[in-house]
Write a structure and sequence with these properties.
This protein is α/β, with parallel strands linked by helices and 433 residues long. The chain contains 16 helices and 17 strands. The strands form five sheets. It has a five-stranded mixed sheet, sandwiched between helices. A five-stranded mixed sheet has the order 13-12-11-14-15, sandwiched between helices. Strands 1-3-2 form a three-stranded antiparallel sheet. The chain is globular.
Length: 433
């Protein structure tokens, strides 16, 4: 991981640079358990004195622990590894969809340690009241010190600062002040994000330790609709009003079905789990109620011809949307979540056939389509696991009150004045080598 670099027209003050370096070191420790100080220097490009200063602050805050690592046979002082203390801070994730609200508590090791579910209620005032009650029960025992905050994931177009749902067509919510109705008197930070974008962040942060994380990919969610979260160069594509990457409302049929968003022929109306259920209900007309996407997939696996045919038809439309994603964004991967992940064995062949028939061959060699490692829980993990920039920013802000030293900043990083000589761990590394 290279040292963080800023591109700006104006100068950056020392406080801003210091905060960025703190975030960089926190991220490095989190992604590399038992990493040594010398490793952090090598990975980040920061100076040894900067690393020493910041790690000391993290240890004082009770966020980082030390442990001996390596073989006892090594001559000289044993290298010391650093780890985040998992339960030092906890974050709460709240995921809201048409099926209800899921609440999860996550620690610093990406582990969900507690869960709750709030059934869906059409009256959103009643619904939010019940959610608030559950959050209060969870947060009160933690106190202000351990709770990093609540990450709320919502479908549709939202105001990320306030949590206002500007438009969530499938919930029939327009201009709903979800954030203020949920937060009320809870004295912890709240962070709001679109469901698909939060899912994308979860995939990026929870990549396998020995695999280079994806930095250019699209996450496609398919639960009570269809959404996309786009990561470009390791950053979420937000747009001017945080409304970017709404590919579910890109038309794939100009003479098609009218969408509640006002457009005609939206991808979501053909490729989502809801579209699959509608397609199956129209075909069978059994009068026994509508089967959901999970039930339809189960029927297809048992050999139900109608179920298999509507799944293949839906897979074709999924593929048409993927064609647009590939030729527009040139991603390393498309990651499928929710129903698409659960039924990928039934969808994959048709999706790929559609993609290969419409995308130039030279655009395909490096594109993968893979299942989400979190399945139907990606958006919940995106809110509950404190691994994104909001988590790092919150820890950083709590360190603002800690004693600081004046620093000297260079073009892209800040260094702290070193005490006389090298820190002991640097001397130990020199001896070991």
């Amino acid at each position: 991981m290279p040292a963080i670099t800023f591109t700006t027209r104006g100068g950056l003050d020392k406080s801003t640079l210091r905060q960025a370096n703190e975030r960089l070191i926190l991220s490095t420790i989190r992604q590399n358990p038992a990493v040594s100080r010398a490793d952090i220097v090598r990975i980040t490009g920061l100076s040894p004195s900067s690393v020493t200063f910041i790690v000391s602050r993290l240890r004082r805050e009770g966020l980082v622990s030390e442990e001996a690592r390596g073989s006892r046979a090594v001559v000289g002082r044993q290298p010391i590894g650093l780890r985040l203390i998992p339960d030092a801070r906890l974050a709460v994730g709240l995921d809201i969809t048409l099926s209800g609200a899921r609440i999860a508590v996550g620690d610093l090791s990406d582990t969900i340690v507690a869960r709750r579910h709030v059934p869906w209620t059409a009256n959103y005032n009643v619904f939010f009241d019940r959610i608030h009650s559950h959050l209060h029960q969870i947060l009160e025992p933690l106190g202000a010190g351990r709770a990093l905050g609540v990450g709320v994931t919502l479908p549709g177009f939202i105001d990320r600062k306030t949590g206002k749902v500007i438009a969530a067509e499938n919930l029939n919510w327009f201009g709903v002040e979800a954030g203020s109705l949920i937060r009320r008197d809870l004295a912890v930070p709240f962070y709001f994000e679109n469901m698909a974008k939060a899912s994308a962040v979860a995939e990026m942060w929870s990549s396998q330790r020995d695999v280079t994380p994806l930095r250019d990919f699209v996450f496609v969610s398919c639960r009570s609709g269809l959404g996309t979260g786009v990561i470009i160069n390791g950053q979420v594509l937000q747009g001017t009003d945080s409304a970017a990457s709404e590919f579910g409302h890109v038309s794939i049929n100009p003479q098609g079905i009218r969408c509640p968003c006002g457009n005609v022929g939206c991808w979501e109306r053909y490729a989502s789990d809801l579209a699959l259920s509608e397609r199956y209900a129209a075909r069978v007309r059994s009068g026994q109620g509508t089967a959901d996407s999970v039930q339809i997939a189960a029927l297809a696996r048992k050999g139900d011809r109608d179920a298999m045919e509507v799944i293949q038809e839906t897979a074709h439309f999924v593929g048409l949307g993927f064609v647009n994603l590939i030729v527009t964004l040139n991603p390393e991967a498309i990651i499928v979540g929710d129903f698409l992940s659960e039924a990928w064995d039934l969808l994959e062949e048709t999706v790929w056939a559609t993609v290969r028939s419409r995308v130039p061959a030279y655009c395909l060699p490096n594109v993968r389509i893979v299942r989400s490692r979190h399945g139907s829980e990606a958006s919940l993990v995106g809110g509950a696991v404190p691994g994104d920039d909001e988590f790092l920013s919150e820890i950083r802000s709590r360190l603002q009150g800690a004693p600081s030293q004046s620093g000297r900043h260079s073009r892209d990083r800040i260094t702290y004045p070193a005490e006389s000589g090298d820190p002991p761990w640097i001397e130990a590394e020199k001896q070991r080598r």
